[in-house]
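Example 9 (inverse folding). The structure is encoded as follows.
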């Protein structure tokens, strides 16, 4: 997407500010992936999900959530990330571009759900 935006930069008011962030949910094969330069990158995986991890390069933060405990089949499905996604979007919208504020707000929101989140 970043390549297409760059190739069509004349179509945007500010082609450097089209994408606010990249959020990877249950990312797979992370050791061979890197978040794109110039865009804030985040990932969320689960402690019980053996198919995803937190070792992607070039991230602002890699979150590990304890939700869906013990349920490997559900913990990798994107549709099961509703709480994480909602909490992240709320945190992003209230952060004013401050990465530390985003991270802390996300963790606090997840705690209110009774879900432990750690940050890599």
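The amino acid assigned to each position is listed next.
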């Amino acid at each position: 997407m970043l390549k297409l935006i760059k190739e069509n930069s004349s179509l945007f008011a500010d082609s450097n500010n089209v994408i606010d962030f990249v959020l990877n949910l249950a990312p797979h094969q992370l050791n061979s992936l890197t978040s794109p330069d110039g865009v804030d990158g985040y990932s969320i995986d689960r402690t019980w999900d053996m198919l995803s991890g937190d070792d992607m390069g070039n991230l602002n933060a890699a979150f590990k959530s304890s939700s869906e405990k013990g349920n490997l089949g559900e913990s990798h499905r994107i549709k099961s990330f509703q709480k994480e996604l909602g909490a992240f979007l709320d945190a992003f919208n209230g952060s004013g571009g401050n990465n530390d504020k985003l991270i802390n707000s996300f963790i606090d929101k997840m705690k209110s759900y009774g879900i432990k989140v750690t940050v890599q």
